[in-house]
Predict the 3D structure of the following.
Amino acid sequence: MSDFEGEKTKIFDVIDENQITVISLWATWCVPCIKELDAINEVYEDWIDELDFNLLAISVDDSRSVRRAKALVNGKSWPYEIYLDTNQDFKRALGTSFIPQTLIVKSKKILYQHTGYQPGDEDYLFEKLKTYADSN
């Protein structure tokens, strides 16, 4: 995994173990992925006001598409931490071949995992987030 500057990192180096983290695997060519991240962006500030969590958006675009991913992210002004999984190592480690793939992680454990996106899925995701935040 790396950032847009090419700085390599590991997933557990960017996740606060004591904080709930949402991880969204996406790609520039994946329309449902973009729709999901846009939908979350519309309610993100409200979510952050209510819950302490972090959101990582990890692009699985290959190295040829990194420029396109950076341009898309800059154009969208998404407030998320953005990382690149150009070799899809993280995606493979999760054992998934489909995106969008959305996970809720805490203490190095996957608490929730969802594949695909339909309008309204972000509401369900927020309900799940609240459930896990309340169980502390």
Notes: Residues 58 and 83 are 5 Å apart (CA to CA). The chain has a mean pLDDT of 93. The beta strands are 20-26, 53-59, 81-84, 101-106, 109-115. Residues 11-134 form a domain with the Glutaredoxin fold (CATH 3.40.30.10).
